[in-house]
Amino acid sequence: MREPEIFSAGNYTARVYTCNTAVVGTGAAGYNAAHRLWQLGQRDILILTENRVGGTSRNTGSDKQTYYKLTLSGGEPDSVGEMARTLFEGQCVDGDIALCEAALSAQCFLKLVELGVPFPRNRYGEYVGYKTDHDPRRRATSVGPYTSKQMTERLEQAVQDLGIPLLDKTQVIKIISDGSQVRGLLCLNVTAQKDEDRFVLVRCKNVVYATGGPAGMYADSVYPFSQYGATGLALEAGVRGKNLTEWQYGLASVQPRWNVSGTYMQVLPRVYSALPDGSNEREFLMDFFTRPEDMLGKLFLKGYQWPFDVRKVEGGSSILDILVYLETCKGRKVYLDYRTNPVGGNFKYEDLPAEALEYLRRAGACFGTPIQRLAQMNQPAIDFYRDKGVDLYTQPLEIALCAQHNNGGLAIDCWWQTNLEGFFAVGEVAASHGVYRPGGTALNAGQVGSTRAAQYIAARRQGEPEGDFRELAADALNRMGALADAAMGEKGNVKELWQDAARSMSQWGAAIRDPEQIRNYAAQVGELQKEFAQKVKAASQVELSQVYRLRDMLISQGAYLTAMEDYVTQGGKSRGSALYTDPQGRKPYSQLPDAFTFALAEGKGSLIQELWYEGEDCHIEWRSPRPIPEEDDFFENVWREFRKNEMIY
Length: 649
Hints:
single chain, alpha+beta, FAD/NAD(P)-binding domain, five-stranded antiparallel sheet, 20 helices, globular
């Protein structure tokens, strides 16, 4: 890495690093991008991260975190084309992206195996699998609760072994572009003690943006506290957003933040609520169900129907998500209790639905208390919480309906390049998924997308950064420097403003969406954005970092709320993990409030919504998904073009 230069603009200075490609983020996708670039001969790389050990990849999981791949075992037929169709049928998915994720699945999976990620295989070498949600085959695999963590650690070690330079504690606060091409990044040195050390500029030809989903938007979230995202900065720079309405929500523990899927539900814990002081316990689910076995059957299904799904509200397991949500709206806290059986043990295993009974019998778990059943079926699930300071043998687990994954994000082509030339989005920040996706596809998509971006850069975007940089960098530095000057004061309020905004987004722009409330909160976000420099204050360098995060978060919230509002205006109905209140719809259960009157999406449900900014003007258009390509696969023709490096365009 070349020695940095000193750049000045007005009253502000910054160190300037120059490279061909800047990789932003140190999760599994970011590290893979850097490693792939090096393998393909690109050496001029710089990795930037706000917190090397933060982020979702390293700090999240579930009872059995899934990696989705092409079938690599058994006699059950599978193919690249069939896997692509599975992904494409998730609605609002571009076919070329689905085909890439299927075609590179085996390559990316086996690379992780070679790096030492211990995916299980049988004595003959087959990488066995299981079925996950929205999966017609047994394509899923796992190394346990920490699949993505182990992926990240192995990829990180590979990058460190190559000596690829990394700037830690470096927060991107502005993307520098000329409107059509990326020119660089303006960053904040979050550890700076002096004003003159505050800013860092990166001049580059390419940016691989691996910042994860915009997790900071929500208060009720299963994302780790170290994950914020930076989608708003890309939208501000003119990058198109795609499928921003599409999220995945589900039940998760609050402390620590963790999915309570799989065996956490299948062992049939006691579910109860209490006042904030712990008093007035009651098993509120039985206010809705008349038979304990019916309630327990839905609880069991929640284990592998974990995401909230509007299609599973009536007669399905997603009614539990709604009942938990309603209970928390009353100001009560909801808990899973593994110490005692639900309804005082007044249920019979043989009266459970057949699917639940067969599973528990085969697992040898038709006995004892929930914690005993959990120990029988999945001891690591208990160990995880104990490692985090929660002993399920002695204390209950607080849960809520939480944001878990953004299926939308930044629009990309089949090389994961956005409409801003040289700007590539990989991992969760990229909109490769649609409304429904098989569990574990996010991990595959992150590896495939970062590989595709690296291939394109190595083949088509080598060389030094081009174009004017100084004028664009000076403008960005002056703007963000002036914001810092305006924000610094004796008393800060940025933390309170952040918490208020996140709570409001969880209330109005999460799984349960009232169109009128969406419009009202979007207007509030717009007002705070207009008055941002005057209203938002920081009392320290740490809080200044939060000021820039809040700025990005509000841009994201504004865009996502605008997308939701437009979706409803265009006649969009409830789908995926989002229930839109609709007075013209129907209420599946009379016991529910009127907010749960809704209609399921039909007809135009597969159209893709794209949103972008030109200055302060927001534009939205709708289009059909790009179809799955049907390429000439005659070997000699493909081989000839491959030898000439004509496949990358």
